[in-house]
């Protein structure tokens, strides 16, 4: 097996990542060492009574909604364990598990050719090199070319990702500043067309910020992040509690003079950069011939449930277990069929529930509007389906794999 990566090295985009129990279970089943390494870098809710809480829902308004009697909505489950980590720390943990010599950097795939009669797939690289394999796993992200290879001929309209009509501002706050609005537990403040999620990372030394804005327009031009002025960003948070605005203000001071306590690679508070959110709400198949999709190339999700990468881990587990059962390359077609049958309904379901959650948490859901009580009740109902409390089902499917090849 060879991993081809176009970049000169592996790198992490964004600051923090939250992982659900299903993602943690997938890690453990792939390699117990992976789960142990994650345990060393993760941080959860530290209040004992909130260990099983995914988020606490509050209002972005002055005093977080307490002025009109809102005391906070708890979303959790007895079998949920919330945890998050710094992306860069997670990447370091994963890197140590990749067999030496199996990654080739600076290798951009520019063409994928299926030789169907010979049952081979040929990769053509930007530097002119070619390589042939029995199969190819397209784990090349939301805009990856393999999505076009798998879907392009029959479903060309599903190849490009669709705009979620939302963008986010992302950043990291040192814990002393973050403490002004969060305790040790994850919080999600909601407002009409806006939201602010915040949780601890770096073993509690910093807090990750993802601030959401509903966009009524389409995203024109390239699907990439766009810098705006600080004033433009601050206007978006005009209706927020003063403490959020202070956090943004401190940001402008610190941008030119980051405190030395912050990791050199981290974003300084909330940068005035709009990150548009795109997703793949419909992927009619994850497999075409001997090419299959894995991770964001298959099922990019909005981040409203913090479950996109977790789905990638579940996919990697199922695919690796299936490929582990293959003793002859003639069994690959059957293995990929089973992979599609197991993974697609689950992962596309998560994309859909994340879309729903995005509408709810920005108070624009047609059924729930601004009713925080109803939103909390619905979020509690939705949590077991994506959070992994149904993991027994997924494990069961994994066991069934052996019987289907
Ligand atoms: C704001 C935000 C917050 C999020 N928070 C969470 C969270 O809390 N929890 C969670 O589970 N998920 C979260 N997600 C989702 C998560 O970040 C993604 O699902 C995950 O990073 C996707 O990983 P991937 O490996 O599939 O794709 P990528 O990370 O995009 O990796 C694709 C790789 O393929 C390489 N590549 C692309 N094209 C080629 C080519 N032609 N040749 C060679 N190499 C190529 C790229 O260089 C890249 O390294 C969030 C997403 C966003 C936007």
Kindly describe this structure.
This is FAD-binding domain-containing protein. Keywords: FAD, Flavoprotein, Oxidoreductase. GO terms for molecular function: FAD binding; oxidoreductase activity. InterPro entries: FAD-bd, FAD/NAD-bd_sf, FAD_monoxygenase. Pfam families: FAD_binding_3 (PF01494). The chain has 405 residues and is α+β, with helices and mostly antiparallel strands. It has a single domain, classed as 2-Layer Sandwich (D-Amino Acid Oxidase, Chain A, domain 2), CATH 3.30.9.30. It is 35% helix and 23% strand. The chain contains twelve helices and 19 strands. The strands form five sheets. Strands 3, 4, 11, 12, 13, 14, 15, 16 and 17 form a nine-stranded mixed sheet that branches. The chain has a three-stranded antiparallel sheet with strand order 7-8-9. A three-stranded mixed sheet has the order 10-19-18. Strand 12 and strand 13 form a beta hairpin. Helix 9 runs antiparallel to helix 10. It starts with a strand and ends with a helix. 41% of the residues are buried. It binds flavin-adenine dinucleotide. The site of flavin-adenine dinucleotide has 27 residues, from strand 2, strand 11 and helix 9.
Based on the model shown, name its key terms.
single chain; 405 residues; alpha+beta; D-Amino Acid Oxidase, Chain A, domain 2; nine-stranded mixed β-sheet; three-stranded antiparallel β-sheet; 19 strands; 23% strand; globular; binds flavin-adenine dinucleotide
How many distinct folded domains? Answer: 1
Q: Whole-number average pLDDT?
A: 90
Assigned CATH architecture = 2-Layer Sandwich
Instruction: Tell me the span between the first and last alpha carbons.
Output: 21 Å
Percent helix range: 25-40%
Question: Per CATH, what is the topology?
Answer: D-Amino Acid Oxidase, Chain A, domain 2
- Gyration radius, rounded: 22 Å
Number of H- or I-type helical stretches: 12
> Looking at the chains present, what oligomeric state does this protein adopt?
single chain
The set of bound ligands, ions and cofactors reads:
flavin-adenine dinucleotide
Class of secondary structure makeup = alpha+beta
Coarse shape: globular
Q: Would you state the CATH class?
A: Alpha Beta
**What composes the largest sheet?**
9 strands, mixed
Portion in strands: 15-25%
Q: Uncertain spans, ≥5 residues at pLDDT below 50?
A: 253-266
How many E-type strands?
19
Protein name: FAD-binding domain-containing protein
Organism: Phialocephala subalpina
Domain FAD-binding: 285-353
Keywords: FAD, Flavoprotein, Oxidoreductase
